[in-house]
Protein: Fe2OG dioxygenase domain-containing protein
Organism: Aegilops tauschii subsp. strangulata
Amino acid sequence: MASERRLYALKAFDDTKAGVKGLVDAGVTAVPTIFHHPPESLDDAPTHPHGHQFSIPVIDLAGLVTPSGRASVVGAVKAAAETVGFFQVVNHGVPEAAMSGMLAALRSFNEEPAEAKRPYYSRDPGRRAKYESNFDLFQSRAASWRDTLFMEMAPEPPPPEEIPPACRRVAPEYVGLVQRLGRTLFELLSEGMGLRRGYLEEEQECLDGLSFAGHYYPACPEPHLTLGAARHSDPSFLTVLLQDAVGGLQVLVDDDKNQPAWVDVPTAAGALVVNIGDYLQLMSNDRFKSVEHRVVAKSVGPRVSVACFFRADASTRVLEPIVTDAGGARYRSTTVAELVRHYRAKGLDGVPALQHVRI
Ligand code: OGA
Ligand code: NI
């Protein structure tokens, strides 16, 4: 639990409603203590030489136009989902202009004067569009060097007036394009599990809910003391991430033989990063891997990224393995609401949410 002194500092920071960007604008030259991560979280000693087995594949979706090309794309997606849990896609159908426009809009929102952003700053769970710094500010052990514009975009987007003007037109357009890509990805993943193409979308409704997290990572005066995002796996079926050219995203790769190692996700112009989330790991009975990742802080910046989480639109949604192998189901049936409770508690007990429902 947070000490009284820490709580006081967290509250003071939160009350500014100006986020980390506000600290940077005020000219801080030292990272405040509330952002200091413990040394074991910062230790990035185990980094692997770029051995073949650790690379994050780039998959060209242009292959989908022919049946043989499609088969090889399914094979590549399946192989990535079963190992590193991350891949990048190119020729994915989201135009470059839509990607750069989305990043520019998010950046301009974050760089508006604090007074313009303050009305959007909120921790109200009922609010569908909000600006916040660290959704788990009061739960986590250490705050991260990041601000976020968070919006529930599907099944219903927020009323336009609740979306900051800088993103009002661009964000829904970008999300529409990501949903179209999502349909393709869920088709490929269905086939990769040996199910019919429409299974994850139609039977499992994986495309019905989408949350948007637009992140802004200001340049950090002491990057060795904090993180842009602490290690976590995603509470989603699947996540599609758009990042700019700054970099900093790392994936914890474990090949069972070596020590787990943090591997950089390279920035690639025009590419989108895709990763398997916890819900799909559970549904695939551990065939597909929801892999932990983090974002390191950097002295250069800002870095801007947009994560689109495909997730169930109702907290009553039941999750259970949809494919099993000889060993039987590895997870008991659960609900999104139960997992979300575990995510909220993770900052305190450190146990990954899926552990709680593993048989
Ligand atoms: C996330 C996430 C990574 C990034 O939002 O869950 O992992 O690069 N983001 O911003
Ligand atoms: Ni993530």
